[in-house]
Every structure is written in C-alpha cells, then in structure tokens.
Design goal:
Elements: H1 25-46, H2 66-73, H3 81-84, H4 87-106, H5 113-120, H6 125-139, H7 141-150, H8 161-168, H9 174-179, H10 193-196, H11 205-211, E1 221-224, H12 236-245, E2 251-256, H13 263-273, E3 277-282, H14 289-302, E4 305-310, E5 314-316, E6 319-321, H15 325-333, E7 341-345, E8 356-361, H16 367-377, H17 389-395, H18 400-417, H19 423-431, E9 442-445, H20 458-472, H21 474-480, H22 483-486, E10 493-498, H23 505-516, E11 520-523, H24 525-528, H25 535-550, E12 553-556, H26 573-591, E13 595-600, H27 608-612, E14 616-619, H28 625-635, H29 648-654, H30 659-676, H31 682-695
Parallel strand pairs: 2-7, 2-8, 3-4, 4-7, 10-13, 10-14, 11-12, 12-13
Antiparallel strand pairs: 1-3, 5-6, 9-11
Helix pairs in contact: 1-4, 6-7, 12-13, 14-15, 16-17, 16-18, 18-19, 20-23, 25-26, 28-29, 28-30, 30-31
Length: 714
C-alpha cells in the first residue's frame, strides 16, 4: 500500500470555519473522513510491526507460535497513537478535532442523521469517531482495505476494539477505553452483538439504515412518526389520562386488556398528540425476549421515540403468564430517553418497577362504543335500508381491531360491486374476523330455513319473532331508553323450545339464526358432560367463553340431560355433583349476553329454577290434521311434479305424525318414484307412510287404508 494514499491536504479541514454549523451531512462526512484519514496515516507511520522503518528482519529464522507472537506483542500495543506522535503531529490532530467538534456543537442536533445519533446517544469524541470508522468500513472499500492492512489481517473487514482504542483514545487510558466495549451502554448497543463478542466493531444494519435516512426495523417492530393523525373515537377519558403522564419524568404506563382491545392504539395516539414518535416492539415471537428488549431500547433512542413494549408474557396452555425474571430484570434496567415507557399486556402485570407506574385496564367495548366504531368504518360505503348498525354492534362483541378489519372487508366488497351492503354481507364480513375453537365442543348448524318452510301456530311464530326483536332492538332498549343502567345483569336472550320430536324446534332455531344473520353452534352434550368432578363445569365455561368470542348462537338440543331437576335430598356425591353442575349452568346462562336456544322433549324434567331464568319458553304442540297436510305440501320442493291422485286429506288424517316423520315419508316416497322412473303418486305415499309407521313400532292394518288398501305393496 502506498503511504501517499493517506496523505491529507491542509485545505481538507478549513480552520476558518471553526464556529460555523455544518449545513449538510455530506459536508460533515468530508471533514470527518479527513480527520480519520490523518489519524490512519499516523497510525501507519508509527505501527510497531509493519511501519516503514521496521521490516521485521530481526525476527527472521525465529520460530514462534501464533499465541506467543500475539502475547509478546501485546505490550507494544498498549501505547496510544497520541503517545507515539511528535509535538507537531499532536497539535495537528488536536486542531482537526477541535474544528470538527466546534462545528458539531454549532449544528442543530436535528439537522441530519449523524448529529441526531451523536446527540441522542450523548457520545464522547472517541465514541463518535468509532461510529464513523465503523460506518466508513461498512460502506467504503478504501477503509476496509486500510483496516485489514493496519490490523495485519487481510481477511478482517471490521476494525478491532484494540485498534480503535489505540486510534481514538486521546484523553482516555487504554484500559478505560477498552472498558467502553465491555460494559453495557447506549453507545455499545449500536454495534452488532455477535461480532462485538469477537472483539470486532460493526454497526447494526438498523443503525446504518438510519444514518442513510431510512427506517429499517427488525421483525415485530414498527415506528410511528410524530404528526400521524390517530383520532380517539372512543375512550377519550383514557386518552386524557395518558396525556397527563407525558409531564411525569421516569414514568411507566401499564395498559392491560385482551388482544385487539386498543392497547397499542391508545399508547401510540397519546404519543402523537404530544408531538412524539412511538416505537412499538412486539416481543411475542422473539426467541430471546431480553435481547429484543435491548434492541427496542436502542431503536427508541435512535429514533427519539416513546417506547411501547408488548408481548412480554409467556404462554402456558394458551393462557398468558407473567414474564420470566430475566426479562423483568431487563425491564428494571431500562432508562428510557423519553417518558413514559408503555408496557402492554393481556393481564395486569405486577412488575414492581422503580419507575413511577400507572396501571390502566381496558374493558371490553360497549354496544355504544361499537356503534361509533362501525359507523366510522362504514363512512365511505352505502348501506342498504334494512342494515342497522346498532343491530350489528349488538350481535358482534368485537374489539376495535376486529371492527376495523371487518369494515375493511366490507369496503373491499363495496368497491367491487358498488351496491349497498346488506345485513347478510356485513355479517359474513364480521364472521370472517372471528377465530373460534367451538368446533371442538360443538357443531356449526347453518340457518337454511325460512318462515315459509315451517308450519307452526301463529302464537308460536309471534313468540319467536318477539325473541328475534329482543336482539334487533337491544341497543334501543338498554342504551337509548336507559334500561342498561338498571339491568346490568342478564341482558342476553335465552329461548327454550319444548315439544315432542319432529315438531319444528330445530327448524325454528335455524330460522332465528337466519333472521339475525348469525352463526349457530349445536353443543355436543356427550363431550360436555363428564363423569369426573369439575370437568363438566370446565367444559361449560369453555363453551360460553368461546361463544362470546365467536358472537354466535348456542343451541342445546335435548337439554334435559344437562338441565334436569336438582335433587332436594343429596344422598351421595353424585347427587351433590349433579346439583353443582346444574347451578353452574344456570349461572352461565344468566351471565351470557348473547343468544342461547335450548330444546327439550321432556319439559317436565327441567328444573323450575332454570325455567325462571329463561327469557322465552315456547311450547310446540303436536300438529293437527290441517297442519300435517300443510307440512306435507311444504316439504315437497316448489315445482316438483306430483301425481293428481294424491289424497292429501286422507294421508294427513290417517297418519298422525309430527313434521320430522312427515319429512321422512316425503323423501322415501320420492326415492320410490325415482326408482320406478315415475312421478310421486298416491301409491308411493301410502307405502312410504306405512314403512315409517312400522319403523316406529306402529302396526298398520291394510283394511284401515280403506279405498287405498290395494296400493300397499305386499
């Protein structure tokens, strides 16, 4: 290497500009590189082993190991560059340093990336030079070659700690300078940890990106720049409380609440209102949460942002638990450059930090809050006349995040179709945001029936429609009319359908689901009831908890097995356990604020206390002759060809069966006709009806079929 490559011109650093601020980053880097070049030249000149006056001839023929070689040279390297230079060289070095430092002091600390970094990390002269040399080594071939040459290793592309200590330790003893690279500090956090452990200095990629003017972030981190509009549509009182925290130094705000409830939004919007940027660090998916926390601390300082930490908890069986002690200790050592420090968690964490802490718990959204959020989300779409936002808000107990995402889905459909959004489309968008585990304990039943498909007395239809209205007008009654202030408990809708099998109980439940545009899950009682003490209650809690999250209708068929009468005389542990299960179920039904439909064939077996807690009890009567004839007609699809010889009145009068059995007869007759390649006739109907009766243990004598007896096959 030619020594002249490192010579510098006297004009490189202008002494007459000593008190002038730097106008641009390029102007500063020009002076900084000139100063570093000068030092590298002097280092080259006085290097103990490869300098121009030492060709190492005195070591020819001497055999030493690498370890011995490095050990014997260590003493020679303990001298700083400053100590090796003559008086004129030291004077020139000091003059160049004074000019650069003076101009930096005169420069606005927010003028360009390098001065921002120097100011925010409060770097000393040696630390600034170390950052500069590392930056140059990463981005200029010239410095990579020089570093490798002066460190006697052509494969080494990064400066060593000892090399930097020698080069820039003007006023600091070498041992103290080296300690800067051992003890944790904001300065040291700028460098890559893995290389630092090897004694090499390389700026982290996020730091290099910052110096080039970019905002490179690790996975799970996000930066919100100051000035971003983040209006608080709900919970403005919480926002006002957070605003007061910005006037308290060394403070921490712990915000708890379930995912999507708005913890992050509250923290970031508070930062925006107070003119600060916010750095959000999600530690949930980090392999090393403590290391990620240190990275977050460095980046928040780098970007002069309020630090927002979330995902600190560990999880056991899907439930969040407090962070481990190592992470707690790291949190305790955090000294945020800007207050407050936001700590977000699902459950309230008792961390006992030395920072003055404020704890805020965000409860689930109210119906009124969800109405505000849905109205804001639908502000750019046209809704159909039968779409009621308050009804949607009642049905879907969403977090603000779920409301936002559901509205975005709806907006996407609207932008394609350009037709008003109806309740069914919006409900489908909302269910697209629901993650449910109910499939493990229940089965989804699609609401495919309408009022035209069922034959029931008008009184029953009126009661069912009344139950549907309780959901549709929930907001008007409990919010607008004020009943919510008086009745804070048991505001859900529970409906009990009682009647013999096949009278339309399940069909009515599906009609309710269709009318409300809600999903319905039929609870599998065989998986709920357990012989083990406490397991049934645990399963019931899981069902109702998931139903709340899923915003669905719960359907308990044949519920008398679960809601049976409690025993007044407790003879053994089985009786006591059964009573506990029934009492627990009554409590869950009463606390559930959604829609719960139950069906039973044996109303007399249902506990009276349970009946008192049910909003609607609907008795399904056995269909009379007129109703049965109507059921036969409606069960056949519209437009299906039927023979004119079918005597509907005879069939409805002769075969006293409920709707479920009538459905079986219609299907069986249709298959008989299809097998013969004809349309359904009276013969098919007679044979199908007799088979259904025999299947249920009822003997039909041929003579009782009167004039149709000859149609019965042998």
């Amino acid at each position: 290497m030619d020594l002249l490559e490192l010579e510098i011109d006297d004009e490189d650093i202008r002494m007459d500009r000593m008190n002038e601020p730097y106008g641009t980053q390029e102007e500063f880097l020009h002076d900084a590189s000139a100063e570093i070049d000068h030092r590298l030249f002097l280092y080259y000149k006085y290097h103990q082993w490869v300098g121009p006056e030492n060709d190492m001839k005195n070591m020819l023929g001497l055999v030493v190991t690498r370890h011995e070689f490095e050990h014997n040279l260590s003493k020679a390297s303990e001298a700083r560059l400053l100590d090796k230079c003559d008086e004129n060289e030291r004077r020139d070095m000091k003059a160049a340093r004074d000019v650069v430092e003076s101009r930096l002091r005169a420069t606005d600390p927010d003028a360009f990336p390098f001065v921002r970094l120097f100011s925010r990390f409060e770097l000393s002269y040696a630390e600034k030079c170390t950052v500069l040399l590392s930056f140059f080594s990463e981005n200029a071939d010239k410095y990579r070659k020089i570093d490798a040459y002066l460190q006697d290793d052509v494969a080494r592309k990064n400066p060593e700690v000892s090399f930097v200590s020698d080069l820039f330790g003007d006023e600091i003893p070498i041992p103290e300078m080296k300690r800067k690279f051992i003890e944790p500090s904001p300065f040291l956090s700028l460098f890559d940890d893995s290389l630092l452990k090897k004694g090499l200095l390389a700026l982290k990629k996020e730091v290099i990106g910052f110096l080039f003017g970019s905002e490179l972030m690790p996975d799970g981190f996000s930066l919100h720049k100051a000035g971003k509009e983040m209006p608080l549509l709900i919970r403005r009182e919480t926002g006002k409380r957070l605003d007061t925290v910005f006037n308290i130094t060394d403070s921490a705000v712990m915000i708890s609440g379930r995912k999507g409830i708005g913890r992050e939004y509250q923290a970031v919007s508070a930062a925006m209102r107070n003119g600060s940027s916010a750095l959000v660090a999600d530690l949930e998916f980090s392999d090393n949460k403590t290391a990620a926390l240190h990275e977050a601390d460095m980046l928040s300082r780098l970007f002069d942002a309020v630090l927002v930490i979330k995902g600190m908890e560990e999880y056991e069986d899907g439930n969040p638990v407090p962070p481990v002690n190592e992470l707690r200790a790291a949190l305790e050592k955090l000294k945020p450059r800007k207050s407050p420090l936001f700590l977000l968690s699902e459950k309230i964490l008792h961390l006992h930090l030395s920072l003055s802490a404020i704890s805020i718990e965000l409860e689930d959204t109210t119906v009124d809050e969800r109405i505000v959020l849905f109205e804001y989300g639908f502000k750019d779409v046209e809704l159909s006349k039968d779409t009621a936002v308050d009804e949607i808000a009642v049905k879907f107990h969403f977090t603000p995040m779920q409301v936002r995402d559901a509205c975005r889905r709806a907006l996407g459909i609207y932008e394609v179709d350009r037709t008003p959004l109806d309740p069914q489309t919006i409900s489908e968008c909302c269910y697209g945001e629901v993650v449910t585990k109910l499939d493990q304990l229940a089965r989804r039943v699609r609401g495919k029936y309408t009022w035209d498909d069922i034959v029931i007395p008008n009184e029953i239809k009126r009661l069912v429609k009344q139950a549907i209205a309780h959901v549709k007008y929930h907001h008007k009654i409990y919010s607008e009319w004020g009943f919510g202030q008086k009745l804070t408990y048991g505001t859900g809708v529970s409906i009990l359908f009682a009647g013999v099998p096949g009278t339309g109980k399940t069909m009515c439940a599906q009609i309710i689901a269709r009318e409300l545009n809600m999903e319905m899950y039929k609870v599998n009682l065989s998986q709920i009831v357990s012989k083990y003490i406490g397991e049934t209650e645990k399963n019931l809690q899981a069902v109702f908890s998931e139903a709340r999250n899923s915003n669905c209708i719960l359907f308990f068929d044949e519920c008398d097995s679960l809601f049976g009468k409690r025993s007044s005389e407790v003879k053994d542990s089985n009786d006591r356990n059964a009573n506990v299960e029934t009492a627990y179920l009554l409590q869950q039904i009463e606390e559930y604020d959604g829609v719960c439909v139950l069906a039973t064939n044996l109303l007399q077996n249902i506990d009276e206390a349970f009946l008192r807690r049910i909003t609607f009890v609907v008795h399904f009567p056995f269909p009379d002759k007129v109703s049965r004839e109507e059921i036969f007609h409606r069960t056949f699809p519209k437009g299906m060809p039927l023979s004119d010889d079918i005597d509907w009145k005879f069939i409805a009068g002769k075969f006293e069966l409920s709707g479920g059995y009538i459905k079986n007869i219609v299907l069986s007759a249709s298959f008989l006709a299809a097998e013969e390649g004809t349309i359904v006739s009276m013969r098919h109907m007679i044979n199908a009806a007799v088979d259904e009766m025999r299947k249920n243990g009822i003997v039909v004598v041929r003579e009782t079929l009167a004039e149709y007896a000859d149609l019965l096959d042998e």
